[in-house]
Amino acid sequence: MSVSLSKVNSLRLSVVAAAVAAASPQWVVAEESPQAATERIQVTGSRILREGAIAPSPVTVISGRDLVETGAMNIGEVLKELPSLAATYSLANAGRFIGTAGLSLLDLRGMGASRTLVLVDGRRHVASSAGSAAVDTNSIPTAWLDSVEIITGGASAVYGADAVTGVVNFKLKKDIQGFDLVLSRGFAQDNPYDNHKALLSFGTDFAAGRGNFAVAAEFSGQEGMNATDRRQTRTSYMAVANPADRDGRDSNGVFIHDGIPDRITVANAGWYDSSTAGNFKLNGDWYIFNQDGSVRLQELGTTYGNIEHCSNCEFLDLRQYQDLQPSFNRQNLNMKANFDLTDSINLFAEGKYVRSKGSNEGQPSFFEYGSAIRIMRDNAYLDDSMAALMDANNLDSIRIHRFQKDAGRRFEQNTRTTSRFVAGAQGELSADWGFEAYVTHGETKLEQVNYNNLIRTNFAQSVDAVVDANGRIVCRDATARANGCAPTSLFGNNAINDAARNWFNTTSYSHSTIRQQVANASVNNSGLFELPAGMVGFSAGAEYRKEESESVPDRFAATGATFLNSLQYMRGEFDVKEAFTEVSVPLLSDLPLIQDLVFDAAVRYANYSTIGDATSWKTGLDWSLNSEFRIRATYSEALRAPNISELFGPQNQTFFRVTDPCATTERQSQTRVNNCAAIGIAPDFQLNNPAATVEGLNGGNPDLRAEKSDSYTVGFVYQPDFIRGFSMTVDYWSIEINDAIASISAQNILNRCVDSASGPNMQFCNLVQRNPQTQTLRLITSVVQNVAAQTASGIDFEFGYDFDALGGRFNTKLIGTWLESRKTYSFQNFPNEYIENAGVAGDATWQANLSVNYRYDAWTAGFKTRYIDAVSLFTSQSLALNPDPSDIMSYGSYFVTDIRLGYDFASGVKLAFGVDNLFNRDLPGVALGTTAETGLYNNIGRFFYTSFSYAF
Fold it and tell me: What are residue 795's DSSP bridge partners?
């Protein structure tokens, strides 16, 4: 086992930077005695073994215990609460895309999960989402988790591509001793959500202590919940047109805002232009079907403007089709072993198998406007009242809108299996030279099953029902009858029968496979040669990596014959050969105000089979004024090569939610008025259904280049001798990404088509198709390009103070971030056109976590509070165009508090009880916590849990 390596010159232990460790100082610097050899330590962000924990880059460290001892379902749910990480993909919101239900991905600074490199013990991990490099935190073994280290800024020179915003490194325990069992169960106070976790680990030495072997198993799961399961979220709210709003143009044609909100938020409101019972519009009136199939005027209550919103009426309640948490379960099996081949060479191997299943239940199939269902006058299920209404209006057919709850909610189940194997050796080649060499193989498979997927042709055959010569109700189409078509009524709630449902619904099966192979070898020398200020450190190495991804959609669904998006086959691969080196050069030492001044540099050359050559580099300066105060700075240029889906992705069907800039409500500039007229849009053009999504196509681009980031950090570390146990770090960081790979958003395409002062911009107008009769949007096409840019900057701070009081030991930590700016540029060539996200929902200006832990004899207690600053719901750029869009303009500041109490018995048993969201803090506004912007808010409510653990 690797313990014996401590008997020679160096011990490869990853520790946090001296200032970052907010716990006791002995975690930072190894205790020394006059007889002890100087201990060299590998710090995160560098491959050079160093004396003490001198980190050249800002590093935030969270202990494995802090992550595991919570009521959260997995470590990803805990990590998303850190100020530096955005809640882009959590269990609550990952299901908003096809094939992503159950994923928990990490997104540093909110600049994209694809730009955050996730490592396990400093090594790459196979991806979890087809075509990407994103790693699902559900695949990380929590039983052996020692700590998680977060490095800010570009780290591609040290770790390779994808680390343009930083690195999250999961460090596992090295040698496992004894038996550990942990059982946990929790439940929410006001809803059916609950979860459970079970961890089992066993490790032992062998071969007289030269080797160590360990095995672990984990089982966890949660029951999902619907928005209607919670008091706070079950009421349907709708932002409707404000009757008091008087925005409009003055006599000179200038658009005037009156300061009155354009929209107001109303309870018990929704859309009236669709219904689970079926409805239609005739002669300006809306009709709806009763349970017996008869027809009557629909109760519209209070309506709002030209958009089909109403309150206290018969509306479509979409809340009942919105899940707050998915059903999810996970099994994780892990094995690892290491063996001291000699006193200086250690062999290691590890393997794991993870199976997770996440389910996402969405809306049923629906039909409205252009897709409305045509019902013929001779339909067999037509009620006399409906027949009379059609006859009175001389109609031989009518088109009805229907939200088909009785056809079954569309249900997606994603089963992911991940296997990963690592084998290698590490140790010393000589007294000064260390080495590590390893290979990894990883594979992720996704089995995606989509239930209640409506077959469009079969559905049309079922609803076109007639009475045959024998008086039986049958499908009109003779071929369909011969193939088993079952007729059904659509008139009223629960009208669809089981036989018809089975005829027109199908189950679609898709699968994906991701493979990764890595071979890496490196050497390091902490004392290559000596300068007057100290020893020069050096490391170098090479890496080969191959990535493959294949997605095979359901063949029938891919034809576009079903309600499910028409997704196409995708396959791609690339390999990359890399060489890297790093030096640490002491410049000055033992001078006034300069105890040590060290310069660090790293460079990495890569040759990709797709984009060719690429180089990353990094420099750093570490200045210790004395034993208490240290200043550090880094500057780096990192890169991200386009991933497989960005390069090889086919043109897939998708649906965009956009606002048509040519609608009368959106023409707030004369330029738009003129350009909309120039492309043939009528002056009085209004949308029939402003909430409807628009079909789109998006896909990859084989001509993409690597995107680049320039980042720098400047900060200081302070550990005063006069306050024992106190540490403080403050770091300013700035990240700029150029040639960013992004799809031009559908909204941007529409706006740029009609916002050019020189007339319609046909480069963008040609990407838009409209219905030639109605001029409504029909299709928008978008592909990824190197056209965008992003910038972000802010200050990270961390204060830790550990002290003895009240007969026990306190450990306190405050971690926070002040977000100065986070800008997105749709087009980097137009630097004056950007969106400032700082201070907007999802990017709070201030975020902080405060934790206080206390131990007294066998008792332990913990307290944690998370703070999110108040945020605007609109960017300053959108408010410049429309300063009064809504009555809800912001969310207020948000606090959530968790507590935990435990007792350690002498027998090895430990019992703990905890409450998350102690004060049952509600979601802000009318949010559900299921979007990228609101995923960081708690949507479970007060949650109780208890855990039992036993170790020997």
Answer: 732, 818
What is d(CA 494, CA 407) in angstroms, rounded to the nearest whole number?
8
Contact 4, 426 (CB under 8 A): no
DSSP 828: T
Could you tell me the two tokens for 826? 């749709």
CA 605 to chain CA mean position, Å: 30
- Cβ 871 vs Cβ 840: under 8 Å: yes
Edge-to-edge, what's the strand order for the sheet holding 59-63?
A: 59-63, 145-152, 166-172, 116-120, 123-124
Task: Say if CB 938 and CB 923 are below 8 A apart.
Answer: yes
Q: What are the two backbone dihedrals, phi and then psi, of residue 914, each rounded to the nearest 5 degrees?
A: -145, 160
Tell which phi-psi region holds residue 188, choosing left (phi > 0), alpha (psi between -120 and 50) or beta: beta
Q: Whats the size of the chain, residue-wise?
A: 952
533-555 pLDDT, tens digit each:
999 999 999 999 999 999 999 99
Within a 10 A sphere around the Cβ of 665, how many other Cβ atoms?
Answer: 16
The C-alpha atoms of residue 580 and residue 274 are separated, in whole angstroms, by 60
pLDDT tens-digit map of 579-632: 999 999 999 999 999 999 999 999 999 999 999 999 999 999 999 999 999 999
Which token pair is 758? 């020189």
Selection from 54, 594, 100, 532 nearest residue 358 by Cα: 100
Contact criterion met (CB below 8 Å) for 904 and 813: no
Q: What tokens does 424 get?
A: 């290698």
Does 933 score more than 70 pLDDT? yes
The rounded radius of gyration (Å) of the Cα atoms in the chain is 31
Determine if residue 859 is left, alpha or beta; phi over 0 gives left, psi from -120 to 50 gives alpha, anything else beta.
beta
Beta 225-226 vs 237-241: how paired, if at all?
A: unpaired
- Spatial separation of the C-alpha atoms in residues 56 and 54, rounded to whole Å: 6
The structure tokens listed for 663 are: 């609608």
Instruction: Please name which of 421, 608, 603, 615 lies closest in space to residue 519, comparing C-alpha atoms.
Output: 421
Tell me which amino acid residue 215 is: V
More confidently predicted of 160 and 839: 839
Distance CA 142, CA 139 (A): 9
CA angle at 309 for the pair 669 and 770, rounded to the nearest 5°:
50
Place of tokens 């900060």: 715
Question: Torsion over CA of 123, 127, 133 and 134, rounded to 10 degrees?
Answer: -100
Angle, alpha carbons 630-636-637 (nearest 5°): 175
Identify whether the C-beta of residue 191 lies closer than 8 Å to the C-beta of residue 230: yes
CA 620 to chain centre: 31
Q: Quick one: which of 438, 589, 429 has its CA closest to 525?
A: 429
Classify strands 859-868 and 871-872 as parallel, antiparallel or unpaired. Answer: unpaired
319 within 8 A of 228, measured Cβ to Cβ? yes
Residue carrying structure tokens 């200006």: 845
Place of tokens 């070898």: 521
8 Å CB contact between 622 and 600: yes
CB–CB of 144/335 below 8 Å?
Answer: no
Residue with tokens 């800008």: 823
On whether the pTM is more than 0.85, the answer is yes
Pairing of strands 116-120, 211-223: unpaired
307-311 vs 269-271, strand pairing mode: antiparallel
Phi/psi of residue 148, nearest 5 degrees: -125, 130
| Closest C-alpha to 266, from 228, 231, 227, 315 | 315
C-alpha span between 802 and 295 (Å, rounded): 72
For β-strands 14-15 and 40-43, DSSP reports them as parallel
Beta-bridge partners for 843: 840
Q: Whole-angstrom Cα distance, residue 740 to residue 706?
A: 8
d(CA 632, CA 649): 42
**Confidence check: pLDDT of 202 > 80:** yes
777: Cβ contacts below 8 Å, ≥ 6 apart: 658, 660, 694, 750, 768, 769, 770, 771
